[in-house]
């Protein structure tokens, strides 16, 4: 196993390529045989041997142009063939063991279904290959399997032939006409229920849509299939992009490391992102199904038709595709709550990653294990960078740039630079400086300072930017950022700057500092900065509580309005942290009351604005966090908020009539707002009767879960009894049971560790199932603040013990759950010490995976400088 980092700068084009692949796969639980035949071509004039990637394969026989071939060397990770011709047919057979493949990469057999996961480097676990995204081949695949157990045999492209063998097996041959890299290869064998429909493309072609789900789950697949149709239509209307095969298949499986995978013509999904119906899925689940279905569909162009030259370019496809799915979701649902959702991810998770030892640019420079780089930075910050292109160019030019990108690169494996160059070709704006976003890591900070000259009625607002050094890069340059800007006074009048630097509500900050000048000003103005989160930055804009309330009242941008309240909550909590509760005075409580009163019909806005920032978000604005004291301060504030505002909250609650279940944006907003308020009312106390009644009358999962969450922190006895009812009702629905597991794992109680052990003994828990492991251990490590950070270090130790076991089973999942431990730098020294003790234990563990090795060794080697604080 190689623990050596690969560097982006070391890229070399492939010495050979493979143009055509024929595979014959004979499925068997422990001894699947794969017969591979490749048309290989030497690239350029050289005499290097052909080196194929492999991972723990058993090789049976090799032929070159039909003749037995012996001049090869086989290792754990490579098959090297010496003295091969320039153009030849290579054929060989390998053997693999899908049943014992618990890492869920390559071909695996779980819950009676065979399926594959090849991104990023999983194909090499199936057969020897040039397993890199810049080798594109046409695939023909024949699958053989027991007819009874596996009536359905799928691979990419179109089915072209099938038949029965005389040993109880049958076979199907699939041909994919589009050359593709191996990471997009897929096959599936199993027994499913099938949902079918069609989609007629804009040029009039009829595409067959097929959705395969576990037997008996057909009704839960309808929403996903309808989402697919909406996504196909949207991509035609928005980007002029049409689907390019006659059939589009989606298979839902219960064992999956990530959300879903965009294999050409044959997406494989975690069932969590396919199955949804009102009783068992929340509004958020529905939202996620639609957005993941769309994401994978959009990859057909941004990822599959134009793919990545090498894995360092991952954001080329992921950042762009996340941006596309975000735009789609905003169009299907509501722009504001979408934007807030994504900003929360940036602030809670991406900013934390940037501040950690794992900090990397959206296009990383160095990678040990590629699976570790499917990160919030590559995905979500990557999408923010695309969004800035969109903001800077405007929708029309952006579309032109995307058209040009496809015109130039359809069918190719390209780089982020190629993308920027295509965008550059349609605009006069110089994108050279902007491109620094691809290579510079870290979260920029924008400081806003003001000076008001009352005598002359002049006001200056200065914006200065800096990016603190990160673990991977010391020196930082000024970035090129579109800064959405609005300026108001305490009465809500809007002001424009003297020099007209602000155009269409934004200006460009591309130097260390910039000043806007205002004249004829009667009072100190209030700068309203970064509307719609126009750049992935932190803003330090020290507004007073009353100014923040004025921003909420008068700003044009709804995101800014929401954000002003978030800052106000944050400020209040910091007053509590320093025991100055009284500075949160009547005027502020009155301000909150007015927010509720004035916006009582705007359920969307209130549903977001009445959410107090999470502990994780608060951490990102603080250094060396003393977990216990921040946690206590936050809880005290939440309680005061609930008690002081109990009456307006209660009348708001009563005014929201959610009626019979309906999946419409209005109904979703109403449910959301009502459940947010319910949580406050539970916090104020004496709400058991309300909670019970909502639980008993709920005709949908959103409202049931709303009660459980509200009871969880505020009504332990009721919580216990509702949770056991819930378990009995949903015992046979693993996806619902995951919610139950997650609720238990995030409950703050002194005996949480023995609770976790009990959950792990639960008959439905399985270490081999990533959804279960994430529901219990992931929820605990990421979101059980008091338990994970317990002052005796027990939480850290518990997670570590578990990760050491899990690493041997599924390193990819283990490496995700270790993330909170690797973010020790954010906490007070005594916490840091306890976290590092556990990281050290991991580092010393024998046979550690590359995945954990990379994250843990980086984290331990990281020393934080004062500049970074
Ligand atoms: N490309 C997938 C996506 O759409 C990500 C993915 C799915 C993945 N499964 C994976 C990445 C396994 C690494 C390993 O985002
Ligand atoms: Zn993706």
Description:
With 869 residues, the protein is of the alpha+beta class. It folds into five domains: 179 residues, tricorn interacting facor f3 domain (Immunoglobulin-like); 95 residues, Zincin-like (2-Layer Sandwich); 131 residues, Neutral Protease Domain 2 (Neutral Protease, domain 2); 143 residues, Zincin-like fold, CATH 1.25.50.10; 139 residues, Peptidase M1, alanyl aminopeptidase, C-terminal domain (Zincin-like fold), CATH 1.25.50.10. Helix content is 41%, strand content 21%. The strands form eight sheets. An eight-stranded mixed sheet has the order 6-5-9-3-2-12-15-14, with no helix packed on it. A hairpin with a 5-residue loop joins strand 17 and strand 18. Helix 16 packs antiparallel against helix 17, helix 17 runs antiparallel to helix 18 and helix 24 packs parallel to helix 27. It is globular. The structure holds tryptophan (TRP) and zinc ion. The site of tryptophan has 14 residues, from strand 20 and helix 2.
Give a brief outline of the structure.
The chain is α+β, with helices and mostly antiparallel strands and 869 residues long. Strand 5 (58-64) and strand 6 (67-68) form a beta hairpin.
């Amino acid at each position: 196993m190689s623990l050596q980092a690969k560097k982006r700068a070391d890229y070399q084009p492939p010495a050979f390529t493979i143009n055509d692949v024929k595979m014959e796969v004979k499925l068997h639980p422990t001894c699947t045989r794969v017969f591979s035949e490749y048309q290989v071509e030497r690239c350029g004039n050289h005499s290097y041997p052909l080196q194929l990637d492999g991972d723990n394969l058993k090789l049976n026989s090799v032929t070159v142009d039909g003749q037995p071939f012996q001049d090869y060397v086989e290792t754990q990770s490579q098959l090297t063939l010496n003295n091969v011709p320039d153009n030849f047919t290579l054929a060989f057979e390998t053997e693999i063991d899908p049943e014992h493949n618990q890492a869920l990469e390559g071909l695996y057999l779980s819950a009676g279904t065979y399926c594959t996961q090849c991104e990023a480097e999983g194909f090499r676990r199936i057969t020897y290959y040039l397993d890199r995204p810049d080798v594109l081949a046409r695939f023909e695949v024949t699958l053989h399997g027991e007819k009874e157990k596996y009536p359905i045999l799928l691979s990419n492209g179109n089915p072209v032939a099938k038949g029965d063998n005389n040993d109880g097996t049958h076979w199907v041959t699939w041909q994919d006409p589009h050359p593709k890299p191996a990471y997009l290869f897929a096959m599936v064998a199993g027994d499913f229920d099938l949902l079918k429909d069609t989609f007629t493309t804009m040029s009039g072609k009829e595409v067959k849509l097929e959705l395969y789900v576990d037997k008996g789950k057909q009704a839960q697949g309808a929403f996903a299939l309808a989402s697919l149709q909406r996504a196909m239509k949207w991509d035609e209307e928005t980007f002029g992009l049409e689907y390019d095969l006659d059939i589009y298949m989606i298979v839902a499986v219960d064992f999956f490391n990530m959300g879903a995978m965009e294999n050409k013509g044959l997406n494989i999904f975690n069932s969590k992102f396919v199955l949804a119906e009102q009783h068992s899925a929340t509004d958020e689940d529905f939202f996620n199904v639609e957005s993941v279905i769309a994401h994978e569909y959009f990859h057909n162009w941004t990822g599959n038709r134009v793919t990545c030259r090498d894995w360092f370019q991952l954001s080329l496809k992921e950042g762009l595709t996340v941006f596309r799915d975000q735009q789609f979701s905003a169009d299907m649902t509501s722009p504001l709550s979408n934007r807030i959702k994504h900003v929360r991810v940036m602030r809670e998770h991406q900013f934390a990653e940037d501040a950690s030892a794992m900090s990397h640019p959206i296009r990383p420079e160095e990678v040990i294990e590629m699976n570790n780089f499917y990160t919030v930075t590559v995905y979500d910050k990557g999408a923010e960078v695309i969004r800035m292109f969109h903001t800077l160019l405007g929708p029309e030019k952006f579309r032109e740039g995307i058209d040009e990108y496809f015109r130039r690169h359809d069918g190719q494996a390209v780089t982020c630079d190629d993308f920027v160059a295509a965008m550059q070709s349609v605009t006069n704006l110089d994108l050279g400086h902007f491109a620094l976003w691809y290579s510079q890591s870290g979260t920029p900070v924008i400081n806003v300072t003001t000076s008001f000259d009352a005598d002359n009625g002049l006001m200056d607002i200065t914006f200065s930017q800096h990016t603190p050094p990160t673990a991977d890069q010391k020196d930082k340059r000024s970035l090129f950022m579109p800064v959405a800007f609005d300026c108001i006074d305490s009465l809500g009048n809007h002001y424009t700057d003297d020099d007209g630097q602000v155009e269409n509500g934004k200006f460009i900050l591309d130097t260390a500092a910039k000043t806007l000048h205002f004249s004829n000003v009667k009072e100190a103005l209030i700068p309203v900065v970064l509307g719609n989160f126009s750049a992935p930055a932190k803003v330090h804009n020290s507004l007073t509580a009353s100014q923040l309330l004025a921003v909420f009242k008068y700003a044009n941008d709804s995101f800014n309005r929401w954000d002003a309240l978030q800052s106000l909550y944050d400020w209040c909590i910091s007053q509590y942290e320093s025991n100055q509760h009284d500075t949160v005075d009547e005027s502020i409580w009155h301000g909150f009351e007015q927010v509720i009163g004035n916006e009582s019909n705007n359920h969307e806005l209130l549903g977001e604005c009445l959410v107090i920032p999470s502990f994780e978000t608060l951490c990102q604005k603080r250094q060396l966090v003393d977990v216990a004291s921040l946690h206590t301060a936050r809880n005290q504030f939440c309680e005061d908020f609930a008690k002081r505002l109990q009456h307006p909250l209660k009348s708001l609650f009563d005014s929201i009539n959610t009626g019979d279940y309906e999946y419409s944006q209005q109904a979703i907003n109403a449910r959301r707002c009502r459940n947010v308020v319910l949580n406050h009312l539970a916090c104020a106390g004496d709400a058991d009767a309300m909670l019970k009644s909502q639980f008993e009358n709920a005709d949908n999962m959103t409202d049931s879960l709303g009660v459980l969450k509200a009871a969880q922190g505020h009504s332990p006895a009721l919580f216990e009894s509702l949770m056991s009812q819930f378990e009995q009702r949903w015992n046979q629905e693993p996806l619902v049971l995951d919610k139950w597991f997650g609720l238990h794992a995030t409950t703050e109680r002194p005996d949480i560790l023995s609770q976790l052990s009990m959950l792990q003994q639960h008959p439905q828990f399985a270490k081999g199932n990533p959804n279960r492991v994430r529901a219990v251990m992931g929820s605990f490590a990421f979101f059980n603040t008091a338990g994970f950070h317990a002052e005796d270090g027990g939480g850290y130790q518990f997670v570590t013990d578990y990760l050491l076991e899990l690493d041997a089973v599924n390193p990819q999942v283990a490496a995700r759950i270790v993330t909170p431990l690797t973010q020790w730098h954010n906490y007070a020294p005594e916490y840091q010490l306890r976290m590092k003790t556990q990281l050290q234990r991991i580092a010393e563990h024998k046979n550690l995976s590359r995945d954990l090795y990379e994250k843990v060794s980086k984290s331990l080697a990281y020393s934080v400088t004062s500049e970074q604080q």
